[in-house]
Amino acid sequence: MTPEQYKRIGDLYHEALAREPDEREAYLAEACAGDEELRRQVEALLVAHEQAEEFLAGPDPSLLNPAPDDRKPMATSGQRFGQFEVVSLLGAGGMGEVYLARDTRLARPIALKLLPAAYMRDADRVRRFKQEARAASATNHPNILTIFDIGETDGAHYIAAEYINGQTLRGRLLQSPMPPREALDVVAQAAAALAAAHEAGIVHRDLKPENIMIRRDGYVKVLDFGLAKLIERRGGWGVGSGEWGKDAIPDSRLPTPHSLPPPLSTPGMVMGTFAYMSPEQARGEEVDGRSDVFSLGTVLYEIVTGRVPFEGRSPAEVMAAVLSHEARPLARYANDVPAELERIVRKALAKDREQRYQTAKDLLIDLKNLKLELEVEARLKRDAQGEAKAGGAPEAETQTYQIPDVMPVPVSLATPSSNSPALREMLEPVGGAVPLDSGFYVLRPTDEKFQQAIARQDSIVLVKGARQVGKTSLLARGLQQAREAGAKVVLTDFQSLSAEYLESIGQLLLTLANAFADQLDLDVSPDEVWKPNRSPGVNFEQYLRREALLKLSAPIVWGLDEVDRLFTCDFGSEVFGLFRSWHNKRALDPSGPWQRLTLAIAYATEAHLFITDLNQSPFNVGTRLQLDDFTFEQVAELNERYGEPLKDKAEIARYYRLLSGHPYLVRRGLHEMVTNNLSLADLEAGAVSDEGPFGDHLHRLLISLNKDAELCDVVRAVLQGKPCPTPESFYRLRSAGLAIGESTRDIRPRCQLYATYLERHLL
Amino acid sequence: MAETSPQSITQLLLAWSNGDQAALDQLIPQVYQELRRQAEFYLRQERPGHVLQPTALVNEAYLRLIDCDNIQWQNRAQFFAVAAQLMRRILVDFARARDYAKRGGGLRQVSLADAVIAPHQKVADLVALDDALNTLAELDPRQCRVVELRFFGGLKLEEIAEVLKVSVGTVRRDWSLAQAWLYNELKHDT
To answer: Cβ B121–A69 below 8 Å, yes or no?
Structure first.
């Protein structure tokens, strides 16, 4: 069949359908005019039309092949509960099913939990449950799941809550063991949630790995406050409620709502919920916050050792163990357990609640302190390694950083308080690169683009931006990623090269070759093969190709930082020309050795201040990444990590107006507020003074500006609200990070701080 | 690798909507990865009743990947258009792997796929559907797209009209004919 034939058939099909069924035959007979094959085909389609109905229409759950022992999902895709529309099932467990749903009013994803009707019959209990669930959510604590609505539609009870993109602690534990620092972080965040709930008079009663969720960014959320109220019985039969996550295990270990009390499970299995209950719960006594402390202790124990402290083959045995067995030391099942951790767990698991941590807050403090201790220890160890390397034998890899398993969200920040001494201890000096394991690094879209470019092994990746916008930090993270992916990494910081190496291109390239030899531990040193009768460029290129690229099979990533220093060298363009030629060689020989070399080049655009000929752009090849200022949201995020020295949205907005998103200034200011206990008003008052926190930065800016009388005039004009006189001056101002805007007319100082300072000194 | 943020995917989608083809190149792998991950997750579920619903997966990917506050429904339709195509590829890949395993070819565990892969009982054979769609694409590419968008992407007729820049009536006619034609094609196969 040809498209033309198909079209003809289609036209006749539609025409026929438009007619009454009894007229179709006559119509076709006439329209086909004796072409029997055509008529047969159209008729076949008309028959199919009747039979096919909606055979391709979206999935109809009733037709989905049900397995024989299927427990039907309580809701189907598209079903509405109040303003919430079900999208898909996320998980199911003893306490109902959880769906990803859409809030049709606010067009946002939410998690919708449907509760089994069996639990909703006792109106008094339902009331108490709702009250507690709402009260917990109302604490607005970042580690407590936010509940939007608890409602009922056609007898179906639902809870609409914040949708967490992440997994439950149970799911996380099933993947791989958790390193101690991460474990402490997770448990401390959970403890913070408990502390807030307890203060509001709410006891969780059913804490376990299934209802602790870890968001992808490391934030921990405790779920299901109040739910235990619905289902508790005398004797403390806590029932599983861990199904908010995708990885919830549909598990016979968990008692099911259909069969309370739970069936005796297969010998050898741990009884889910019973394993986390406190002795007083097992005895059926009234419980208080200290019961949650005990449960959290068992969770911590399980994270560290991979097993719960109290085991048994039946609920009765588990309860007996909870009541009377002492938990075995952590060290029995795990290596390198700090003594302090052993003590913390023992205290949390004390049978007598009078002997336990009396509040979740006390537990939290000990957890935080231990985490800090471990961090400091790790840092000291790393520094010691660094020193040993500096003075000792050369090593193939010159830098080894310890990257934490998760993006660091320091424990101390889980309960944000800029006054917390733990936070202060974690503060690091602002300026220069943000350490790899810093809790204060804000991920931006450029991070990902940079890593993608490195992963693709692009020939040249350019990272540019104004001074102090985060280029070196970005470079460091990208290189670390490359290292982890198996690449060999060389790093050259042009700022650290002493002036003598920048006197001639010969001197510079030999220095760079030596850096390669040292950092990659190459067998042949440049001196052995450097030929005086060849140009330095050829010497360097041959050395790189023969001794590095051809001898190492791994890809090489060469990070070049602060490259703007080369702009002022006479031979700068020659060096860039060399880089460009390698890029071209790759294109010409796709299987050649240059394929394995990636140059990651970071440079400050401020150097453009001094480049008068703007056509003399240093690079015109490669992947370019422009690092920009923080957005408002990113400033808010950083404020959170600093323990919220800016008290509310209004203050963040004020701060953002003052500094826009200038990354260095934003960090500098937050750091200043936390270390010196300043209010925003204090900071604003001293902002433009030379002695203030921004003084050095502003002063430096003025000095470099004063070197260029012409540019000074342009700045004056802009400060007075006039347009830039020329496109060149506009471009230079913007590249210098002094101003922002889209055109010569639409240009303004980069931030209020700059405007005020420059007005004071230039006008 | 940094987490793909809803902001970045949303920006790519908007850039593509504004005519930036390079943005589409970046968007596709990320959407594919998410859909594939979801689909595999469903296939791994050992719980009966977890059924692979292509349109639910696409919806879920949308909510996960897109920052819903900053997007209009036209952009939403465009996302679904991309996702529908990818979903088709993923499902057909799974189905092929299953068939391969059935013939004793592979070590891959796909027995579960047997139970859950068919999005609709009447379309038992996704591989045959895929072949038929390829044939249809040669006869009338737009009809093929309509089926893809509706069947794999779960788009409504109005949304399909928006994506394909044709009237709703045209979409309805395309859908009717394509469905009848595919029905016959698949009937012949079995």
So the answer is: no
- Bridge partners (DSSP) of residue A109 are A102
pLDDT in tens, A478-523: 888 888 878 889 998 888 787 788 888 888 999 999 999 988 888 8
Contact list, B139 vs chain A (CB under 8 Å): 1-3, 6
Residues of A in contact with B63 (CB under 8 A): 87, 100, 102, 109, 163
Q: Check whether residue A607 and residue A668 sit in a common domain.
A: no
Instruction: Give the residue among A578, A569, A495, A581 at the shortest CA–CA distance from A536.
Output: A578
State whether A190 and A294 are in the same domain: yes
Q: Show the domain range for A18.
A: 3-52
Residue A383 buriedness (CB in 10 A; 0-12 / 13-18 / 19+) = exposed
Q: Look-up: residue for tokens 């639902």? A: A158
Same domain, A545 and A656: no
As a residue count, chain B comes to: 190
pLDDT in tens, B118-168: 333 334 567 778 888 888 999 999 999 998 888 888 778 888 898 888 999
Segment B180-190, tens digit of pLDDT: 898 888 775 54
- ipTM exceeding the 0.85 mark: no
Amino acid type, A356: R
3-state secondary structure of A54: coil
A471 in the same domain as A366: no
Tell me if A744 sits within 8 A of A726, measured CB to CB. yes
Of A602, A626, A650, the last residue of a domain is A626
Secondary-structure percent of chain A, ordered helix, strand, coil, rounded to 5: 50, 10, 40
β-strand partners of A84: A81, A103
| Same domain, residue pair A659 and A572 | no
Residues A222, A124 share a domain: yes
Least CB-CB distance to A88: which of B60, B151, B177? B60
Q: Which two tokens stand for residue A119?
A: 């639990």
- Preferred mutation among B122, B152, B185 to probe A, highest tally of A CBs within 10 A: B122
Task: Give the pair of three-digit tokens for residue A740.
Answer: 């922002």
Name which of B184, B178, B172, B175 is nearest A44 in CA terms.
Answer: B184
Q: Are the beta carbons of B181 and A45 separated by less than 8 Å?
A: yes
Positive or negative, the CA dihedral A142, A203, A225, A303 is: positive
Both A300 and A373 in one domain: the answer is yes
Do the beta carbons of residue A289 and residue A203 sit within 8 Å? yes
Out of B4, B55, B184, name the one closest to residue A48 (CB).
B184
A586 within some domain: yes
| DSSP of B50-110 | ----HHHHHHHHHHHHS-GGG--HHHHHHHHHHHHHHHHHHHHHHHHHHHHHHTT------
pLDDT at A406 over 60: no
On the 0-12 / 13-18 / 19+ scale of CB atoms within 10 A, A494 is buried
Beta carbons within 8 Å of A319's beta carbon, 6+ residues apart? A274, A277, A282, A312
Q: Which residues pair with A598 in a beta bridge?
A: A557
Per the document, the length of chain A is: 763
Catalytically active residues of A are: 206
Of B59, B118, B151, the CB nearest to A56: B151
* A68's tokens: 């024989």
Residues 6+ apart with CB under 8 A from A503: none
Which carries the bigger pLDDT value, residue B75 or residue A200?
A200
Strands, DSSP E only, in A447-586?
Answer: 460-465, 488-493, 556-561
Q: Mean per-residue pLDDT for B52-81?
A: 70
Distance from CA of B104 to the nearest CA of A (A): 24
Domain coordinates in residue numbering, chain B: 6-189
The answer to whether the CB of A365 falls within 8 A of the CB of A191 is no
Torsion of the alpha carbons at B5, B6, B11 and B17, rounded to the nearest 10 = 140
